[in-house]
Amino acid sequence: MDPVTTIVWIVSFVLVTVTVTGLSRRVGWSAPVVLVAVGAVVSFIPGVPQVDLEPDIVLFGLLPPLLFAAAIQTSFVDVRARRDGILLLSVGLVAFTVVVVGFATWWVVPSLTLAAAFAFGAVVAPTDTVAVKAIAGRLKLPRRLVTVLEGESLLNDATALVALNATIAAIVSVINPWAIAGDFVLAVVVGVAVGLGLGYLIAAIRKQLRAPVLDSSLALITPYLAFIPAQFLHGSGILAVVVAGLFLGYRSPTIQTAEARIAETINWRTISFLLENAVFLFIGLELAGILRGAFNSGITPPMTVLISIVVLLALFLARFVWMVLTTTLYRHGPKRLRERGWNWPTGIAVSFAGIRGVVTLAAVFLLPKETPHREFLQFLAFVVVVATLFEGLALPWIIRKLRLPPPDFAQESSEMQRLLAEAQSAGLAHLDSAVTGQEDQRVIERLHINAVFLAEALENPGSNEDEAAPAEYQRLRRSMIRVERQAVLQARSEGRYQELAVRSVLAFLDAEEAALKSSGPNKPHA
Q: 88: which DSSP letter?
């Protein structure tokens, strides 16, 4: 394919991704499922080039930025508070799934070796960060449940890939069980060490940077700086990326300027949007090639249906049984676990959130050529990904039936406003001590008015019970900004001001509107 044709296909790919995602959100459909369906249909159209997703491109190219973007947006405080539950899912559940699905696959697939079956179990064991965030982002799930699911999906990739490497070694040679344990410990230690080491180094560099462009440029290569060294040191590159992302996200208020933080948020949100949705379109585009390989495996269609059903049942039952066991432990175990655990409705909801995605499809292509029924196992992995995406569609109904409480947006907004008022009170106290007496009195009065308004409005709410004073201010000020922007644009169209002045005023209004939006009620993204 010549360079011009390649560019045309890339532009078309991005255009389809953005269009399908936007339309899906508008009509309330699941964008991941629709993208997979569109890709699957397009893969059978004559003239469309066959998509063969190279595993190394996914592992080294796509996964690091995706995981890093998810990690820096994940609360380190929440992950630490739920660390026991997250570890039970990201390590214990992965190992349990490898064994259960491995034995089920070995039992039902003819002439499949146990090592190859366990390798397939490792392939389908990890939930997918992209898929989990895409599904959870549309639902009003309890914050605690979202934290557990996101923490699980961030960390279980590392466990699954270590298990996959061990089983691949068992396919091609004889291995020592102690060597597997040693490899796992090495992967964890090296991954955490590289992630923390790089996090401290990047934090030290960012403290010296004042240009948002330089800070953003460094941020874009940070996931690769964590992933590649950890991989070459026989550690977990995925774990290194996640640790570095969690660390830098937690430290960002003290190491970055406000402009750099805003720019980084926008950059990673854009990158995540494109990569997350492109991944699902890629999954669908691979269907034609995967089906051809499955048909050439010699397994009959009726047997294929039976095997698919058995594997899906084993996958679901492994997660469900594990959640029953862990929830029982939390409910009836030691006092410390009872205080930190989850209830039965939360455990059931987690058991239905085992969505697979790009990691599974990338990992299945890592199986060596010596693997029995390699092409058929690739087809099974595709079936698992698509089936679990549809399983995710049932989450809203399950959440309603379980009567899990949605996030209390009013309480969250109230907490945010109280914290902001507390911060402004501290700023006001500092202002009183910083005044030298030489300042313009009008400046001091304006600073006092701005700082005192929110605290007084919260302590002494007005008569309008439907809308608090801070919300009234935000609503009215944002409507004023819209009119002010129109006035600036009208002045520009009349040619009364130079473009530099117009752009400067528009940038000022944009910054104020963005600040008002970020301080508004915390509502879920569309």
A: I
Distance CA 226, CA 87 (A): 22
| Whether the model pTM is above 0.85 | no
Encoded amino acid at 144, one letter: R
3-state secondary structure 416-463: HHHHHHHHHHHHHHHHHHHCCCCCCHHHHHHHHHHHHHHHHHHHCCCC
Q: In angstroms, rounded to a whole number, what is the distance separating the alpha carbons of residues 214 and 222?
A: 12
- Going by C-alpha positions, the residue among 501, 503, 506, 499 that lies closest to residue 484 is 506
Side chain identity at 3, as an amino acid letter?
P
For Cα atoms 52, 58, 61, give the angle at the middle one, nearest 5 degrees. 125
468 C-beta neighbours (distance < 10 Å), count: 18
| 244 and 226 Cβ atoms separated by less than 8 Å | yes
Helix (H/G/I), strand (E/B), else coil: 166: helix
The distance from CA 386 to its chain's CA centroid, rounded to whole angstroms, is 19
Residue 465: burial class (beta carbons within 10 Å; 0-12, 13-18, 19+)? exposed
Q: Answer left, alpha or beta for residue 140, where phi above 0 means left and psi between -120 and 50 means alpha.
A: beta
Name residues whose C-beta falls within 8 Å of residue 509's C-beta, 6 or more positions apart in sequence.
481, 484, 485, 488
Q: Which residue shows structure tokens 């501290």? A: 426
Ramachandran class of 251: left when φ > 0, alpha when ψ lies in -120 to 50, beta otherwise: alpha
- Report how far Cα 238 is from the mean position of its chain's Cα atoms: 13
The SS3 assignment for 53 reads coil
List pLDDT tens digits, range 419-449: 767 777 778 788 878 777 777 777 788 777 7
Could you tell me the CA-to-CA distances from 36 to 329, 392, 472 in Å, in that order? 38, 14, 43
**Cα gap 331→268, rounded to integer Å:** 39
Other Cβ atoms closer than 10 A to 31 = 21
Burial (CB < 10 A; 0-12, 13-18, 19+), residue 257, is middle
- Each residue's pLDDT tens digit, 143-200: 777 778 888 888 888 788 888 888 887 777 666 667 767 877 888 899 999 999 999 9
CA distances 13 to 4, 83, 129, 271, 279, Å, are 14, 39, 22, 15, 11
The pair of three-digit structure tokens given for residue 52, joined into one six-digit string:
């063969």
For 492, the token pair is 């520009």
What is the number of alpha carbons within 13 Å of residue 450 lying toward its C-beta? 9
Distance CA 199, CA 111 (A): 47
CB 365 within 8 A of CB 138: no
Express each pLDDT in 71-119 by its tens digit. Answer: 888 888 888 888 888 888 988 999 999 999 999 999 999 888 888 999 9
8-state DSSP, 103 = H
- For residues 433, 434, 435, 439, the Cα torsion angle rounded to the nearest 10 degrees is -170
